[in-house]
Amino acid sequence: MWIYEKKLEYPVKVSSCNPTLASLIIEQFGGADGELAAALRYLTQVWTMPIPQAKAILTDIGTEELAHWEMIGTMVYQLVKDLPESKIAGTPFAAHYANHGKSPFPHNAAGAPFTATYFNSKGDPIANIYENMAAEQKARATYEHLIRLSDDPGVTDALRFLREREIVHFQRFGETARLLQEYMDSKRYY
Amino acid sequence: MQAIPNPNAPMNMANPYPNPMAMPMYNMPPEIQLARAYVPDQPYERLFPLNEALKKGTLFPNLYQPYMQKRN
């Protein structure tokens, strides 16, 4: 069960109408290392985790990734909502507009639609937790690319927040990896 | 007094935001094995004030590692 809070995890104040930037940050809305892939990866892995601490961290972080996905979608929309329709053609957002109008849609910056092949759940706690640690680093790297590409101070500020969350999550998964290793060892050798 | 931890607990005012990379080594598992990756446990040291924590993306000074953008 989930409880929804009717506000963003971190306030998003987009400073400009910027279809180019919208078409770039959508990478984190529907890309391989984006927030949707992260949320589904962690929430899908919950069931086969053998210890309650690991289930809890995956549920917590998976839920937070949904809140990040909501932030990215909000930014994408705010960057294009006031764009006059006569000005869309010729921008990098035009290909997105042809299919989805101004609605955010989960595809990556190159237009490839979201797919569950971006993540895995192996039914093996160690393989899963290492995938998750790698996922946090790949998302951090993506945020650094996007920070370098952003020319909107409000978007950059939110991207910096999201990048820092990747670092915190990496630490949490690292701590969880150790608990899982200890648990697996105790199962094997008692 | 309040039972909750004070987020404004005394800290080193000369350097209120130390570089986490320069902090001492944290506890690693006593028995380290090959073919495993380890992250040290995070010590519970002190907290940012809550308004600053939201801005920074973490409550914990020892996890705050902001991106330093190269200028070129």
Looking at this protein, list some descriptive labels:
heterodimer, A: about 190 residues, mainly alpha, Ferritin, 7 helices, B: about 70 residues, disordered N terminus
CA(first)-CA(last) distance of chain B: 52 Å
Residue fraction in strands of chain A: under 5%
Count of helical regions of chain B = 1
The tally of strands of chain A reads 0
Q: Give the CA-based shape of chain B.
A: flat
State the distance separating the first and last CA atoms of chain A.
Answer: 36 Å
Class from secondary-structure proportions of chain B:
little secondary structure
Largest interface: A-B, 24 and 20 residues
Strand content of chain B: under 5%
Largest sheet of chain A: none
Question: Can you describe what's shown?
Answer:
The model of chain A has no long low-confidence stretch (mean pLDDT 97). Chain A has helices at residues 19-25, 27-30, 35-45, 52-80, 94-100, 125-149, 153-189. Chain A is elongated and about 70 Å long. Chain A is mainly alpha-helical. Chain B has one helix and no strands. Chain B starts with 49 loop residues before the first helix and ends in a 16-residue tail after the last helix. Chain B has one helix at residues 50-56. At the A-B interface, α6 and α7 of A face α1 of B.
Architecture blueprint of SSEs:
The complex is a heterodimer of chains A (about 190) and B (about 70).
Chain A: H1 19-25, H2 27-30, H3 35-45, H4 52-80, H5 94-100, H6 125-149, H7 153-189
Helix pairs in contact in A: 1-4, 3-4, 3-6, 4-7, 6-7
Chain B: H1 50-56
Q: How would you concisely characterize the structure shown here?
A:
The complex is a heterodimer of chains A (190) and B (72). Chain A has 190 residues and is mainly alpha-helical. In chain A, 63% of the residues lie in helices and 0% in strands.
